[in-house]
């Protein structure tokens, strides 16, 4: 069945027939023609602006509100997206709930260096992919500050670098939108304790909003506690022609994780492989944005920002070159310090009017971003405790000390022309230029020095046709690019692999990644009770960059261009209202494959053999990319029992996926099995101002894993102790969390802070 869906001709025939099926359904419901359509407006540009009616957008945009996130009591934005947005998966590669590797249609946004990043993330018009590795730190986006999100699929060039498979635009709350006071507390499994408050208001033309979060827990796995301190504030001014907001985000978070486990140790999934692995992120982020109406048909928007992130990472590692004589320390600790400063701004003009007698909306803009990073890495020898913790046996010594500078420039435009009342044409484009400078600060590693420049113009075009008042069919083509990051450029030598996120070496040149996406689909509503969306897509990446494993340590390897890769598939969503019951469901078919043959060094793959080196694998066209399930199914149900009680349930199911290091799909351990997880949540309004809520994750206590990587297990001695003589290649997996529950209490006074249903 799925092979039939993926045949290109068959797939496109399905898309071409979809409008006729929808038109027939609409024709069978004459009452639909009497209903006034609901106009939904979505943002389709980096800076918030007037937006475009959804019926004119040639893309399967997904949107959600902060109120939806709160009702589900999602831990953070990434957990909500995993449960409630189509095509999104999350894996626990780092095993801290705030450091997930998030994937959308097979493209990643992750805080982990070494993950090929393919999504751009914006907060109030500022791109928050970090300058050093284009990583995304989900712990730095306070959940309680989110007003709305838009997930825009495809290689939309307007959002600039890293928009290979999609862009996520996050918008924060303001006092005009969210007046009132709300405080809540939560506690439960793993000694999780969370306190949260928000307060917003306005007077005349001035508004204010502030929210804060305090969170701590021990974690369900040993040695994996988390502690978050988040604060967000915004001060705004608004009149008939101007809207001005100044916001500030502060975070001081300490997150610990414990890595994946080899199959032989999964009988006790709560144990750590090695520990500690600790990250501390300290953020200060200032953003000033505004817009002004210059005339009846002209709107000017602009922003300037400053963002500083200081990250300390302490990680424990096995010495895979252990030798009683030449290298007698069984372990070593890495300490990396990353200080990133980012600043820049954007300006954007929107012209509303008529072109050739037709309604037209033209937007053009420019952006300039600069990122400066000071990175140092230190290493110390260590030994292991019986439970695989590390104890230092020497002082730290400096291994790497570099400074990098990124300069990104972009000029873009988009124009939406209504050719008829039903047919809308959108044409867009963006010119990107990226310049990267890398300098060794020690003076002893001149091979690290390098200057790199990448530039490209990326076009896009699409049409949206409204079959009826509430049914739209669309077709789009777009292109995007990603420039290699400093961490990739300094870790691209197969003869000298790096241990992420730490050691860097010389910088062989890498090529920029170019994406080309086709998408066609259909969306609509029937009788205001049933909404649907169906889309088919294909994205080809030219000169894709992958992190290639190279040795016994599971985080050792290098980056290289691997030719062409492809993500293609089918995405279906359905939502319905019947009285007090609301249902939402989605199915995603994602086929992510290599299209260019190449040879990889993968010594822990059972099928490895001498090709170009002693332990190579041959990757062929059609082999699946690791870490991406083919099938995703999600279901969300909410039911209101009377006026006080609301019940909710979420189901996520994913099919099997291949482990990293098994790019040829032939390792004897096979793929990581699929899984299904059921979560419950409920809210009970005790009074007008008080609300009791609870949530249960993994209700059925399913044992499952959601990530795999091939590595060498050095802990084969008695009681899983260090024994290099019996080290064995194994598949490492990240186990999913067991059943857990939490209960909380919320007090809300006034306005939107009451938590009224959206």
Helix and strand arrangement:
Blueprint: H1 2-6, H2 8-27, E1 41-42, E2 52-53, E3 62-65, H3 66-71, H4 77-84, E4 88-91, E5 101-104, E6 107-109, E7 119-123, E8 126-127, E9 146-153, E10 166-172, E11 180-188, E12 192-203, E13 206-217, E14 226-238, E15 242-256, E16 261-262, E17 277-295, E18 298-318, E19 331-355, E20 358-384, E21 390-392, E22 397-418, E23 423-440, E24 450-468, E25 471-482, H5 486-489, E26 498-499, E27 513-526, E28 530-542, E29 545-549, E30 556-561, E31 565-578, E32 581-594, E33 598-601, E34 616-619, E35 631-641, E36 645-654, E37 675-685, E38 690-697, E39 705-713, E40 728-735, E41 740-749
Please, could you describe this protein's structure?
The chain has a 22-stranded antiparallel β-barrel. The protein has 758 residues and is mainly beta. It is 6% helix and 54% strand. The longest helix has 20 residues.
